[in-house]
Write a structure and sequence with these properties.
four-stranded mixed beta sheet, 10% strand, 223 residues, globular, alpha+beta, single chain, 9 helices
Length: 223
């Protein structure tokens, strides 16, 4: 993607085009920053790892319904996270008719490679996606997430959000200039531009260890 990065860095018109695109749908201020203000660089950083395990019945139904709606499980899960974040905003007494949450996703760059090339290369190749702004209605889900029957009662409003997440991501992935768009994000990361600031990021790749093992005629001998 180096050639695309160089093309963007040397083309002010492209930089403006993708900068404007990155702001499309952006709210005036990030709601998340109101409850999680950016700390000083001198502040000691802390990371909280929160885990959640779902039972087989809930997981199977979630996958089944996602397929029925024609969207990926990743998009459905991202919708759950967006709604949960809005739940947190409401707990902090930020009440709105609609909430706009910025999302990014980690993209497996192998999807753009020739299959033969992908099969002969080891390692994990990912890129951060451009921002997607997701609008979540304030009444999409009034109760705590986790009760599948309550989601069903919400007259499909959850799946409206899930489809919006899916559409936003796949509009990027299916665009003709997707590699240039992803290269723009890399350029922004190099220069610390704010056009990639986001409320939520998603990585749904799971266990990637098989990508580091010897494949076909290749054999990993040392690390």
């Amino acid at each position: 993607m180096a050639s695309q990065e160089e093309e963007i860095e040397n083309n002010p018109d492209l930089i403006k085009e993708y900068t404007d695109a990155s702001k499309k749908g952006q709210p005036e201020k990030s709601l998340v920053n109101k409850i999680l203000p950016t700390k000083s660089l001198t502040t000691h950083k802390q990371t909280l790892l929160e885990t959640q395990t779902f039972d087989c019945e809930t997981t199977s139904e979630f996958i089944r319904r996602s397929k029925m709606e024609g969207i990926t499980v990743n998009s459905s899960f991202a919708a759950v996270c967006n709604i949960a974040l809005c739940d947190l905003l409401r707990e902090k007494e930020i009440q709105q008719e609609n909430y706009v949450i910025s999302n990014t996703h980690l993209i497996d760059m192998r999807r753009f490679w020739d299959p033969e090339v992908a099969a002969d290369n080891l390692g994990c190749y990912i890129s951060l996606s451009n921002r997607v702004f997701v609008e979540v209605p304030g009444d999409v889900y009034q109760e705590r997430l986790g009760d599948w029957q309550r989601l069903e009662v919400e007259q499909g409003r959850f799946w409206v959000v899930a489809r919006a997440v899916h559409w936003g991501l796949h509009q990027l992935l299916d665009s003709k200039d997707v590699l240039r768009r992803l290269a723009f994000v890399t350029v922004c990361m190099k220069t610390s531009e704010p056009h990639i600031d986001r409320d939520l990021s998603f990585n749904a790749h799971g266990d990637l260890s098989h990508l580091f093992a010897g494949r076909r005629h290749l054999q990993a001998t040392s690390w």
